[in-house]
Each structure stands twice: as structure tokens, then as C-alpha cells.
Write a structure and sequence with these properties.
Blueprint: E1 2-3, E2 5-8, H1 10-14, H2 24-37, E3 41-45, H3 51-63, E4 68-74, H4 77-87, E5 93-100, H5 103-110, H6 114-131, E6 135-140, H7 147-160, E7 164-169, H8 176-189, E8 197-202, H9 209-219, E9 223-226, H10 240-249, H11 251-254, E10 256-257, H12 265-276, H13 297-305, H14 333-342, H15 349-365, H16 371-383, E11 392-399, E12 406-414, E13 417-425, H17 428-440, E14 446-454, E15 463-471, E16 474-482, H18 485-507
Parallel strand pairs: 1-10, 2-3, 2-9, 3-4, 4-5, 5-6, 6-7, 7-8, 8-9
Antiparallel strand pairs: 11-12, 12-13, 14-15, 15-16
Bound molecules: 3-methyl-2-oxobutanoic acid and zinc ion (ZN).
């Protein structure tokens, strides 16, 4: 079987899409999941995009030991120099440069002739090569490029030193048959391309990204670029979990194997959904809640007789546990600790004690505590950044009916000082947020995300609230977890608003 490399770009193509921005701590958390998954390459970001991007690419490059770490760069010296500066401390650094090759992009975006694009390809690939032997070149909008010209560009990049050449379907326009033919065409016409990695990078505008990537493999591609949960520009990229499980499940067709530890897929997917404050769509292949459920009588009957009747892959193979143990208020510290260990959490005694207090408090509100609840507690406590100088919730009271305006009275505390406010609002949450604003007077901002998700089933479920505020091009996130969604919303908003205030007071 041929070996397929998995190049993950969740932290670059995924992170640059609206609603998916991550802070440094979150990016490092995702990088850790990707390393556990054993992806071959982590594209950590686009180092030149901002000082924050540079810092996170550098931090990821320094943290990751077992994967190549790449930074994206346009085909300019400054971009390439910055990309190298950011990744140079990685165990295996890669510079990933790109230039567009389609007539539309060359004429209207780059305002360059095809000859100029060829010259730039040669010069900038050679420039990157001065820093490292590991250079990837991408021909942006390859699938709408003239194949003959594309072959020329690929040859030029390889001769200048590229060891990986990527042919992106930048706008998600191509079809599986076309993708297979394009890769085969390049391999046929560019002899040098047979000795390097040939990569595909497919966007999902027509819902064909996974199919196109697999077709690329059938055409001869040896690297697939993808993202966790298919995040990415517009409709997203090839989803890592789907493409990997397709390769595994239909190895008879593709005859190609990635090195991925598939049992880490669910954890990675959940981590990323959690960071962007969204649940997986119910019917999302591989990781959606319904992906392994059999509701109809006929299906249930078949599965009871033999699982293979309706299951082509097992939940265990992607790390979904089926023995969902339930804890409750009579469960002691030992049972709590044992279950967390079984769930794969290696926590310090201090972390365990703090979590046990939260677990007991939750037991008073909720009869049964499921694995999902436990994991939410762990994830949530690892995300709360204590801010001693910020405002904290002291107490709140809301009054809401279906025929009057909602009111919220709130008391916040900062250090020893307490502050109270009362506000009307369009519903209790709006009233609460307005009352908070009245006290803390944050700079003008907009809501990038306000989402409320339930952790488990039942009306006593924990509500998991994500708030992402944006101001001056930066995002500030907060999380709240409680069986009371108004309290969770207040906590999440306060956390995000404290970060916003801290940032702007630092900026002066
Ligand atoms: O979609 C695309 O073309 C890209 C390249 C920059 C690789 O993301
Ligand atoms: Zn892309």
C-alpha cells in the first residue's frame, strides 16, 4: 500500500475563516491533538499576517516534536523570510509558498503575465530553499489553470527546489474525475513530479472536497491537505476525519494508508468544535451524534443480528466510547478520578481536587453525571483563565415574562469593590449584558459568536455558552458552563469583556 501524507491546515486555512479564530492557548491545544493524531504536517499559520500569527506559528514550531511544522508565505522575499523566522526552531520546519496560476487570478489579482509568474516561482522557491530543504510550492487555483501552463509551473518549482507541489482546488470548482485526470496529467508530463510529494488541497464549495481529494489519490497524489471538522475558507476544506476514514475503510479501492491514529479523531474533533463554540452537526460523518445511531426498527434488528449489516466502521475505531458510565452524588473521589483516567485525562492532584468540588456542586443540580458532563467540566476548567484584576459575578436576579420587558439586576465584584446595575432588555440575557456594560463600560465591540449548546440530554443538562467579542480586528472569547444558561451566559460574557478591557487598557 502506498503511504499517504496528511497535511493538516486547521490552524491556517481553518482558523482564517469567520467565527473560527483561536487564541494562542487554543492553537497550542489543537496542535497537541494533531500531534497525537500523528498527522505528517501541521500548517501552523500564515506568519506574516500579524504579530499574533507569527507568535503562534513560532510557539507551535517549538512545541511540536513529531510532525513537520509549516508556515504559509506568498511568493515574496519578505513573506518567505518571516515564515522561516517563525518555523526555524521546529524539529522539521517547512516553508509553504504559493502563487496563483489561473488566467483569472494572474490577470485580475496578481496583475502579472504567465511569464512573470514562472519567473517568480523559480526565484521565490530558490529563495525559500536557501533556508531549508523542506519547501512546498502551491499553484493557487490550479484546477482552473491551463494544464500545460500548470505543468510548466510545477516543473519550474521542482527544478528550483520544491520537494512538495500542491495543486489546490481553491474555489471548490472541480469534480472527482477532473481532479484525478489533472494529477495524472501532471505526473505524465512532468517527469520530475514523480520523485516528489504531489499534494491536493480541496475546498468544499460544491460538497466535493473529500471526493476530489480521494480522486487525487487515485490519480497519483501522495499528500492530502485537510482540516479537522472540514473548517476552512467559505464552505471549508476536506475534512480530515472523513478522508482518513474513507482511506481506511476502503483501502481495497485506494490502496493507500495514512499514519493517523484514528482513535484520536473524536477527541480532536471535539476539541476544535469546543474552541469555536459549536457542536458537530447531528449528521456529520464520523463525529456527528447520529453517525453511529440506528433508529429505525429494521436497522436495529439488523445491527442486533450482526453489526456489519449497517455499520461500515466502528465508533471505537475513531475513539468514541460506547460504555458511557454514569456517576452521581454518591460517587466518591476514587470513582471520579478513575473515570477521568479512563477517559484519558492525566490531571494533577490539585486539578483533580478543584474539579471534584465542581463535580459535587453539579451533582446537587443534576441527578446523573455522564462522561460528556465530566469532559465538559475538564475542558471548561482548562479554558478558564483566572483574571484577578477583572470583574466577577457576585449575584444576579432576572425578571422575565412573555408580556413585559425583561429586567436584570446584577452585582459584580472587582477586588473588594462591588458594583450594582439594573437594566431592561430584549429578554433576560440582553438585560444582563446591558447591566454588565453599564458597570464595566467596555470599548465598542460586536458579537462574533454567542452560542448556547447543551452538553447532554435532558432538561437538567449543562448549558455550555461561548461568547466571542471582536473589536479593532481582535477576538476575545469567554466560556460559561452551568445548568442555568443565564448564569453561564453572564460568566462567558464577563470573561470575554474582561479580556477586551485588559487588552485595550494595555494599549492605552
Ligand atoms: O485554497 C488555496 O489555494 C490555499 C493555498 C494558499 C494553498 O489555501
Ligand atoms: Zn485553501
Amino acid at each position: 500500500m502506498k503511504r499517504i501524507k496528511i497535511f493538516d491546515t486547521t490552524l491556517r486555512d481553518g482558523e482564517q475563516s469567520p467565527g473560527c479564530s483561536m487564541n494562542l492557548k487554543e492553537k497550542l491545544q489543537v496542535a497537541e491533538c494533531l500531534e497525537k493524531l500523528q498527522v505528517d504536517v501541521i500548517e501552523a499559520g500564515f506568519a506574516i499576517a500579524s504579530p499574533g500569527d507569527f507568535e503562534s506559528v513560532q510557539a507551535i514550531a517549538r512545541q511540536v516534536k513529531d510532525c513537520t511544522v509549516a508556515s504559509l508565505a506568498r511568493s515574496t522575499e519578505k513573506d518567505i523570510d518571516t515564515a522561516w523566522e517563525a518555523v526555524k526552531d521546529a524539529a522539521d520546519p517547512r516553508i509553504h509558498l504559493f502563487i496563483a496560476t489561473s488566467p483569472l487570478h494572474m490577470e485580475y489579482k496578481l496583475k502579472m503575465t504567465p511569464e512573470q509568474v514562472l519567473e517568480r516561482t523559480a526565484a521565490m522557491t530558490a529563495h525559500a530553499k536557501k533556508y531549508t530543504s523542506n519547501v512546498e510550492f502551491s499553484a493557487e487555483d490550479a484546477t482552473r489553470s491551463d494544464p500545460e501552463f500548470l505543468a510548466q509551473v510545477v516543473r519550474t518549482a521542482i527544478r528550483a527546489g520544491a520537494t512538495v507541489v500542491n495543486l489546490p482546488d481553491t474555489v471548490g470548482y472541480t469534480t472527482p474525475a477532473e481532479m484525478q485526470a489533472l494529477i495524472a496529467y501532471v505526473l505524465e508530463h512532468v517527469e520530475e513530479a514523480r520523485d516528489i510529494e504531489l499534494s491536493v488541497h480541496c475546498h468544499n464549495d460544491l460538497g466535493l472536497a473529500v471526493a476530489n481529494s480521494l480522486a487525487g489519490v487515485q490519480g497519483g497524489a501522495t499528500q492530502i491537505e485537510c482540516t479537522i471538522n472540514g473548517l476552512g475558507e467559505r464552505a471549508g476544506n476536506t475534512s480530515l476525519e472523513e478522508v482518513v476514514m474513507a482511506l481506511r475503510t476502503r483501502a481495497d479501492v485506494f490502496d493507500a494508508a495514512p499514519r493517523i491514529d484514528t482513535t484520536q479523531i473524536y477527541r480532536a474533533s471535539k476539541t476544535v468544535y469546543d474552541i469555536i463554540g459549536q457542536p458537530a452537526p447531528l449528521n456529520k460523518p464520523i463525529v456527528g451524534k447520529n453517525a453511529f445511531l440506528h433508529e429505525s426498527g429494521i436497522h436495529q434488528h439488523g445491527v442486533l443480528a450482526n453489526k456489519k449489516t449497517y455499520e461500515i466502521l466502528t465508533p471505537e475505531s475513531v475513539g468514541i466510547r460506547t460504555n458511557n458510565l454514569v456517576l452521581g452524588k454518591h460517587s466518591g473521589h476514587h470513582a471520579f478520578e478513575t473515570r477521568l483516567k479512563e477517559l484519558g485525562y492525566d490531571l494533577t492532584p490539585e486539578e483533580l481536587s478543584a474539579l471534584f468540588v465542581r463535580f459535587k456542586a453539579l451533582c446537587d443540580k443534576k441527578k446523573t453525571i455522564t462522561d460528556d458532563d465530566l469532559e465538559a467540566l475538564v475542558r471548561h476548567s482548562s479554558r478558564v483563565e483566572e483574571d484577578e484584576s477583572g470583574y466577577k459575578l457576585d449575584w444576579f436576579a432576572v425578571h422575565t415574562t412573555n408580556f413585559t420587558t425583561a429586567t436584570c439586576t446584577i452585582s459584580l465584584q472587582r477586588g473588594e469593590e462591588k458594583f450594582e446595575a439594573v437594566c431592561l432588555g430584549d429578554g433576560p440575557i440582553d438585560a444582563a449584558f446591558q447591566a454588565i456594560d453599564q458597570i464595566i463600560k467596555p470599548v465598542e465591540h460586536s458579537f462574533e459568536i454567542f452560542s448556547v449548546n447543551s452538553i447532554s440530554e435532558g432538561k437538567d443538562t449543562l448549558g455550555d455558552v461561548t461568547v466571542k467579542l471582536s473589536a479593532a480586528g481582535k477576538s476575545f472569547s469567554g466560556r460559561g458552563l452551568s445548568t442555568d444558561i443565564i448564569k453561564a451566559s453572564i460568566v462567558a460574557y464577563l470573561q470575554a469583556a474582561n479580556k477586551l478591557m485588559r487588552h485595550f487598557s494595555r494599549e492605552g
